[in-house]
Amino acid sequence: MSDSYEIEPFFLAYIKWHYGRGLREFWGVTGNFLWFIKNFFSFSLLMRTLFAPWKKLGEHYEGGLKLGAFAETVLVNTLMRAFGFVTKIIVLLIGLTAYILTLIFSFFILFIWIFAPLILLGCLILSVIFFIYFR
User: Fold this and answer.
1) pLDDT per position in the chain (135 positions), as tens?
2) Of 49, 68, 100, 119, whose CB is crowded by the most CB atoms within 10 A?
């Protein structure tokens, strides 16, 4: 903004920065937040391994005709996969909630950013009116 300030009036340079570079940088920051949440919660990895056992825990069946050992292996592996599924679903829901809240908050801040000069001007006019009429 400093280079255009010397050529143009301050208000015009500010409006150009606010609605030009300021909005681009705002979307860049929002994109960084969304990228961080996507990678922090590893959405793609969790979706690919949704039915995998939790932390690769499980039993290995050694073979043979031992029905008890086979049933034990199936039960433990099923429980580990169920626990992994539930845990990953919870993490995905928390991540999705964080992603959606970030989007909502970003659009709220964008709304404020777009109308900030008008809000500031309105506050200035109201303060002058208040000062003149209620001294």
Assistant:
1) 556 556 788 888 888 888 999 999 999 999 999 999 999 999 999 999 888 777 766 666 677 777 887 788 888 888 888 888 999 999 999 999 999 999 999 999 999 999 998 999 999 999 999 999 887
2) 49
Q: What is the DSSP string of 16-84?
A: HIIIIIHHHHHHHHHHHHHHHHHHHTTHHHHHHTTTSPGGG-------SS-HHHHHHHHHHHHHHHHHH
8 A C-beta contact, residue 87 and residue 100: no
End-to-end Cα spacing for the chain: 38
User: How buried is residue 91: exposed, middle or buried, by Cβ count under 10 Å (0-12/13-18/19+)?
Assistant: middle
Residue 107 to residue 111: CA distance in whole angstroms: 6
**58: its two tokens:** 């499980």
